[in-house]
Amino acid sequence: MHLNPYGEYAILLAASLANDWPRDREGIIARTREFGMTVAFPEQPHDHARVRGVIDEWLTVVDARDPHERARLLNAQMAAATAYPRLTDHDGEGWHLHYRDDGAVSLPHVLSAVISVGTALHLTTRGMHRLGRCEAGATPGDPCSAVIVDVTRNGRQRYCSVRCANRAAVRRHRARGA
Ligand SMILES: [Zn+2]
Ligand SMILES: [Zn+2]
C-alpha cells in the first residue's frame, strides 16, 4: 500500500495519540507504524514528553472557537515545524512530499510537521469544521473528551462512538420527559 504521507493518516494519528496516549516512547513509535509511517526515529531525550507537547498544542487547534482562530493557530504551528516541501522516495514508499528539512528526524519534530500539514490538508479539502470533540462530552458531568476527525461522507459526525451516541440519545429521551 502506498500512503501519501500528508494525507488523512496524519490527522488520524494525532487524534489517536490524543484519545489514547501511549505510556512510553515505544508506544508512540508503535502508533506511528500502525498509521503507516516508515521513518526510523533516532532516540532523543524527552521524546515522550515532547510529543505530548506537540499533541497539547494540536489540541488548541481542535478546540479553536472558529475557523479564523483555527487557521491562525495552525499557521503558527506550521511556521514553527515545517520547511519548504521536498520530493523524496525513502524506504520504498514511492515519491512523496516531505515538509521538513532532511536532517530534522527527531520524533517530536517529524510528528509536529506531519500533523500540522496533515491537519491543514484535511481542513482545507474536507472542511474547516471537520475537527472537534465528541458532542456527548458537552453535557456537564459526561466523561468523554474524545477528539473527532470527521472523515464521513456527509461531514456531520457528532459522536466519537456508538456508545456516546446512545448515551446522548438516552439523555435527550429523558429530557423530553418520556
Ligand atoms: Zn516520507
Ligand atoms: Zn464520545
UniProtKB/TrEMBL annotation:
InterPro entries: ABATE (IPR010852), ABATE_dom_sf (IPR023286), Znf_CGNR (IPR021005). Residues 130-176 form the Zinc finger CGNR domain. SUPFAM superfamilies: Jann2411-like. This is CGNR zinc finger domain-containing protein. It comes from Leucobacter ruminantium. The lineage of its organism: Bacteria, Bacillati, Actinomycetota, Actinomycetes, Micrococcales.
